[in-house]
Amino acid sequence: MTKKRMSRGKFERLTQLANQDGVIAALAIDQRGSMVKMMQNAVGKEKYHIDMVYEFKELVSQELTKYVSAILLDEELGFKGMAKKNPNAGLILSYEKTGYDVNTPGRLPEILPDESIQRLISKGADAAKVLVYYNPDDPQEILDKKHAFLERLGDEARTCDMPVFVEPIVYDNVITDDKSPEFARIKPRKVIDTIKEFTKDQYHIDILKVEVPVLFNYVEGYHDDRVAVYSQQQAAEYFRAANDAATRPYIYLSAGVPTHVFHQELQFAGESGAKYSGILGGRATWLDGVAAYAQGGRDGLLKWLDTVGRDNVETLNKILKAHATPWYDIYGGLDNIEVFDLNL
Description:
The chain has helices spanning 8-17, 33-43, 50-64, 75-84, 117-122, 140-160, 181-198, 232-245, 259-272, 283-286, 288-323; strands spanning 4-7, 24-29, 70-73, 90-94, 127-134, 164-170, 207-210, 250-253, 278-281, 337-340. By secondary structure, it is an alpha/beta fold. It has an eight-stranded parallel beta barrel, surrounded by six helices. The protein has a two-stranded parallel sheet with strand order 1-10. The longest helix is centred in the C-terminal third of the chain and has 36 residues, at 288-323. The chain is globular. The mean pLDDT is 96.
């Protein structure tokens, strides 16, 4: 295998974001608008105050980064969490504006207007993360805009010697219910085609944060009262095909599924032969803590984090220990990476 050349800043920061096994065992709590809605629904709009979100993110970061290799936060609502994270845990900061302009076709991505990768580095970030809504079946003019956006993002990250995590979320313009059996049937191809595109060298993406290629509650033997869309064999083939499409390290996001479903997805992926390099686990790790906070305040959340929250993370760590692959293995291992100094 040809040697992989990697700049020193990117290599050292990726090492910081991974655990001792080279696996990215990371926590994600960069939700913004949706985080506010969760808290409002839990405590009631009449009692809600923005300080509750600040405190929730602060305590989740303070307690759970003791057990993870890194945390993904937003500065807007997570600045207290940034200050209170475990110093041994790496920091990934959101770099995109939340949501998208519904009046403009294509769900186009947009960077935070008052940020740059240089600024993220000055705030202690080890990587920048950008979410991109992506439909490989969109008109070419929409795809060109997103591809050019990714090229600019990759070039900025290379210039600053900073890893960039990109999170593609697939969608369809006709089947808009992304929880439906109809979407379940088209999702695997969309995810696989998206991985093929985003791992092209021209984008210089360091880590892909991807969805699992199926809607897991439609897999035979794992679904609830729904009709199965995939047999277990078909689902395993989709996991392998998505894995084979990746030419760069990828990690899974939890995508808001329940905790036990995320565990099942990760185990199934590993048993199917997917060589994923870790996770950025979000709501599947801490969602029930919102209710604990609403009912018991600061002390109630701390108790939940020290028991259920910690157990959620430690269960994920056990699954990763059994099934995840070091991020550098896709390049042939550490010995096959040639680290060079970038002249900044």
